[in-house]
Amino acid sequence: MNFPKNLPLAVSLLAITFFAYTHAATFDIINQCTYTVWAAAKPGGGRRLDQGQTWNINVAPGTTQARIWGRTNCNFDASGRGQCETGDCDGLLECQGYGKPPNTLAEFALNQPNNLDFVDISNVDGFNIPMEFSPTTDVCRRLVCNAPINDQCPNELRTPGGCNNPCTVFKTNEYCCTDGPGSCGPTTLSKFFKDRCPDAYSYPQDDPTSLFTCPSGTNYRVVFCP
């Protein structure tokens, strides 16, 4: 049987494409803050990061509703049980669920339609630590929320260690969009976050200016205090 001369090249390209869209994405989680951050990931668990330390996790293709965040002012015992002032996840060092607001979030869904990852930074659960969420190579947008939000936080949103989103405080459709698509819009309080972090979600239906895409197969970094 005679094979086309370009078949080996075609097979190689197919294999490369398959690998790019099916291998786990690597996330380098880096603490550049002057204080300790207890990094958390769902999926992934948790890790104490002193200044300058890095934690690497691999996330399976097709993972959705995933997030990475930082916790502050934590104390854990030898069994990994304790408490954090912000971002606490049921008192566990190795998080199994999401963190308690306020916490700045890096959110993502991998290998979605059209071979794209969906990525964002979100302040919908409030803000506790400045954050960068970016690709490790220059294939898509670098997202940053690095404003002094805790220092400038409106009095009604202030909480120890961070700044709450108004949804957390008031729990109404105006701020939480609980009545479905189109039921809410920007508010004075959500604009406080948007004006300081235009890349980040400021309320739940802030998609047009806050949700971004990267090619599937991209590796990422999340930096605390970039």
Automatic annotation (TrEMBL):
Organism name: Abeliophyllum distichum
Keywords of the record: Disulfide bond, Signal
First and last residue of the signal peptide: 1-24
PANTHER family, sorted: OS03G0233200 PROTEIN
Domain of life: Eukaryota
Protein name: Osmotin-like protein OSM34
Membrane-crossing segments per the record: none
Family the UniProt entry places it in: Belongs to the thaumatin family.
Family annotation (Gene3D superfamilies): Thaumatin
Keyword Cytoplasm: no
Pfam families: Thaumatin
Disulfide bonds listed in the record: C33-C225, C74-C84, C89-C95, C140-C214, C145-C197, C153-C163, C167-C176, C177-C184
